[in-house]
């Protein structure tokens, strides 16, 4: 009896264990199904949201004065796939789209839309946006003239200039793009941003007549002195070391700055008595030609301060009080507030010749 009872108890325990295992297994399977369904729903929701964001951002990018997105969608047939044919759009819209292309992409576009991409207005815009001034712009175009061909010549001449400035200028003159005049060369340099600044610095150091005309193209009226100096050195890059060329640049800048701001010079005391030279104008009245000695001193002070504040090799930076004291020692008529504003400008904005 004891043995039979033990067997019955063991069988009942086995059945109970199997039942508990089946319950636990079913719960596990249900959790896996729920989690998988939740994951799928979350993944589907994420994809739908991403698709909506992408579509909305795309529509925002192409919307302008008119709804270009709906215009393109309306003109696109059900059978047609890919980008819409620009010849199907109004000419004004087609030219507007092509005007955003550079020269390389415009040449590629001409393989598909030859009449549109070869339009002279598009290539004229490319020429004038890159080379703002050329002598040939103001002349009657010769027979067979093409702005696309002119763009290629300007690009070739710029590459030649960046290798050898003299040869580059001679190339422009040989093609009739530039006149043999220092003023025309200066205007070309002033309105062009594709010339190598190191080669340009060498060329201007050798052609002081071009440098003089280039300086006169700057208008510093009502500009703060450090900002005007930054603009000057953006067009005419300063040499890496102090020397005769740097002194020449600062001298020319000082004269130009004073010429553009005569009232400001007198107001700030940057043209003190005894620093000027009397002369007569055509009406017989005496006036004074003030030499910009104070501006020259301030420019050197700003350059030295820029190096002091921006160089990692200078451990002990010059304080505002030290700068005011040193500057007023060299130019006594300048107010302390004005010199303090100069220091603040360099401290906040940075180097004047960077």
Automatic annotation (TrEMBL):
Gene3D superfamilies: 1.10.220.20, 1.20.1280.50, Arf Nucleotide-binding Site Opener,domain 2 (1.10.1000.11). Residues 83-126 form the F-box domain. The keyword Isomerase does not apply. InterPro entries: F-box-like_dom_sf (IPR036047), F-box_dom (IPR001810), FBXO8_F-box (IPR048003), Sec7_C_sf (IPR023394), Sec7_dom (IPR000904), Sec7_dom_sf (IPR035999). Keywords: Membrane, Transmembrane, Transmembrane helix. The keyword Transcription does not apply. Pfam families: F-box-like, Sec7. CDD domains: F-box_FBXO8, Sec7. The chain crosses the membrane at residues 285-307. It comes from the Eukaryota. Residues 148-349 form the SEC7 domain. This is F-box only protein 8 isoform X1. It comes from Erinaceus europaeus.
């Amino acid at each position: 009896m004891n043995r039979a009872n033990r067997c019955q108890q063991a069988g009942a325990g086995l059945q109970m264990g199997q039942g508990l295992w089946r319950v636990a297994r079913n719960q596990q399977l249900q959790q896996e199904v729920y989690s998988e369904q939740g994951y799928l729903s979350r993944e589907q929701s994420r994809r739908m949201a991403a698709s909506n964001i992408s579509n909305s951002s795309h529509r925002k990018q192409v919307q302008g004065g008119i709804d270009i997105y709906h215009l393109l969608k309306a003109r696109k047939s059900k059978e047609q796939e890919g980008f819409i044919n620009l010849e199907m759009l109004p000419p004004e819209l087609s030219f507007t789209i092509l005007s955003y292309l550079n020269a390389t992409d415009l040449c590629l576009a001409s393989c598909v839309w030859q009449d549109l991409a070869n339009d002279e207005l598009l290539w004229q815009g490319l020429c004038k946006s890159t080379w703002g001034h050329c002598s040939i712009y103001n002349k009657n175009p010769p027979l067979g003239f093409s702005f696309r061909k002119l763009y290629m010549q300007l690009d070739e001449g710029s590459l030649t200039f960046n290798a050898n400035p003299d040869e580059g200028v001679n190339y422009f003159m040989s093609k009739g793009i530039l006149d043999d005049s220092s003023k025309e060369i200066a205007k070309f340099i002033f309105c062009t941003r594709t010339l190598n600044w190191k080669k340009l610095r060498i060329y201007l150091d050798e052609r002081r007549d071009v440098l003089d005309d280039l300086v006169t193209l700057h208008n510093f009226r009502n500009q703060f002195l450090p900002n005007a100096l930054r603009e000057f050195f953006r067009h005419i890059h300063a040499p890496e070391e102090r020397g005769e060329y740097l002194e020449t640049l600062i001298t020319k800048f000082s004269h130009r700055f004073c010429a553009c701001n005569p009232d400001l010079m007198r107001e700030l005391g940057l043209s003190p008595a005894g620093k000027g030279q009397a002369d007569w104008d055509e009406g017989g009245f005496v006036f004074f030609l003030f030499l910009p000695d104070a501006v020259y001193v301030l420019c050197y002070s700003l350059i030295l301060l820029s190096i002091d504040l921006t160089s990692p090799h200078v451990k002990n930076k010059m304080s505002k009080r030290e700068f005011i004291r040193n500057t007023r020692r060299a130019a006594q008529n300048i107010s302390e507030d004005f010199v303090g504003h100069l220091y603040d400008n360099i401290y906040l904005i940075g180097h004047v010749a960077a």
